[in-house]
């Protein structure tokens, strides 16, 4: 289980312009992979109208597909959000599984019900100075995510302001100037 800070923005531009802006800022493509998530929620929460509470009571069955690394996981995420909707931090816990269908059927048997599916194509970009970002194509939306501890370069950002400045330097239009976009909540609102 890990506790981390991150920022996530929804980009209001085309795929091509977003990639160009990232590359023009000195980032180079490191790797790409796909994540397919099935969200299941406890039966008693399926009609909850507060998305953050609904998602904090959900379990994900995650199919992580990278050319050299295929993983299947049951994932639990819990976001701690302040009164302004900003994500203070989040907890992630993962358990490796062998079979997606078996995990899905087991969760259904113990009272979980389908909530939504998310397909995420992720491109990791890094800079020579160790900066790292993830460009994510989530269903029909574009996001850029920066985590406090860079997974591929090992760099650890000292402040959220530094992370926000990486995004600002891209000169892309950000939806509502929101640095705490919630991808799952966005997709959930599209589906309801």
Report what the structure shows.
The chain is globular, with a radius of gyration of 17 Å. It has one domain: Hypothetical Protein Pfu-838710-001 (Beta Barrel). The chain has a 9-stranded antiparallel β-sheet. The protein has 192 residues and is of the alpha+beta class. The chain is built from 5 helices and 9 strands.
List keywords for this structure.
44% strand; 5 helices; alpha+beta; nine-stranded antiparallel β-sheet; Hypothetical Protein Pfu-838710-001; globular; 192 residues
Largest sheet: 9 strands, antiparallel
Succession of helices and strands: EEHEHEEEHEEEHH
Helix content: 10-25%
What would you report as the Rg, rounded to the nearest angstrom?
17 Å
Shape: globular
Mean pLDDT: 91
Can you count the helices? 5
**DSSP strand content:** 35-45%
Low-confidence stretches: none
Considering the protein shown, what is the CATH homologous superfamily?
Answer: Hypothetical Protein Pfu-838710-001
* CATH structural class: Mainly Beta
Straight-line distance between termini: 30 Å
Assembly type of the shown chains?
single chain
CATH topology: Hypothetical Protein Pfu-838710-001
Number of strands: 9
Number of domains: 1
* CATH-level-2 architecture: Beta Barrel
Strand order of the largest sheet: 1-6-5-4-3-7-8-9-2
Structural class: alpha+beta
In short:
This protein is of the alpha+beta class and 192 residues long. It is built from five helices and nine strands; from the N terminus they run ββαβαβββαβββαα.
């Amino acid at each position: 289980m890990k506790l981390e800070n991150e920022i996530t923005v929804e980009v209001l531009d085309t795929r091509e312009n977003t990639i160009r802006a990232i590359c023009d800022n000195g980032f180079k493509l490191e790797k790409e992979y796909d994540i397919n998530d099935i969200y299941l929620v406890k039966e008693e929460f399926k009609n909850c109208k507060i998305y953050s509470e609904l998602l904090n009571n959900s379990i994900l069955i995650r199919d992580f597909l990278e050319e050299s690394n295929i993983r299947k996981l049951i994932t639990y995420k819990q976001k701690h959000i302040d009164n302004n909707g900003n994500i203070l931090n989040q907890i992630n816990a993962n358990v490796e599984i062998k079979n997606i269908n078996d995990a899905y059927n087991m969760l259904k048997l113990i009272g979980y019900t389908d909530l939504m599916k998310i397909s995420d194509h992720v491109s990791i970009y890094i800079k020579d100075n160790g900066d790292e970002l993830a460009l994510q194509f989530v269903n029909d939306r574009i996001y850029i995510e920066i985590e406090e501890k860079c997974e591929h370069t090992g760099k650890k950002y000292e402040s959220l302001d530094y992370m926000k400045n990486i995004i600002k330097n891209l000169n892309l239009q950000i939806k509502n100037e929101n640095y705490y976009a919630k991808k799952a909540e966005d997709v959930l609102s599209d589906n309801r």
